[in-house]
Amino acid sequence: MPIDGKRLAQRRRDRNFTQQSIADALGIKQQVYQRYESGERQPGRPRLNRFCELLECSPDWLLKLTDDPHEYTKLESLGRDEIRLVVAFRTGDIETLSELFRDKFRKELLE
Questions:
Q1: Which domains does the chain carry?
Q2: Model's pTM, two decimal places?
Q3: pLDDT tens digits for range 37-96
């Protein structure tokens, strides 16, 4: 699930950071960071967590799962497979992620 680059840029500006200052804190070049904001690049879990730490927001907000920058998605609002997907993403469980995507695309192809 991709992060919303516009939200990333908005939060950075709201917190009075420059692209360069965030890039420096992450140990990357400003041009690389800019690609996250433009949507050309997506962060892995560790970098997503670092964005959230620096910008004081939840991963769920950057992933557009909630409209509140400090709120996490309430699990009771998600279906069984959605919960498995979120847990697998947060824990880096590639096997479960692959299984869920395989099943989703298989169902769509059969319909």
A1: 5-62 (1.10.260.40), 75-110 (no CATH)
A2: 0.66
A3: 999 999 988 899 999 999 999 998 998 888 888 887 665 677 778 878 877 887 788 898
d(CA 78, CA 85): 10
80 Cα distance to chain centroid: 20
5-14 and 30-38 helices cross at what angle (nearest 10)?
120
Token output for 48: 């997503």
| Residue bearing tokens 């997503």 | 48
- Three-class secondary structure assignment of the chain: CCCCHHHHHHHHHHCCCCHHHHHHHHCCCHHHHHHHHHCCCCCCHHHHHHHHHHHCCCHHHHCCCCCCCCCCCCHHHCCHHHHHHHHHHHHCCHHHHHHHHHHHHHHHHHC
Q: Residues 75, 85: contact at Cβ < 8 Å? A: no
Of 73, 76, 50, nearest to 63 (Cα)? 73
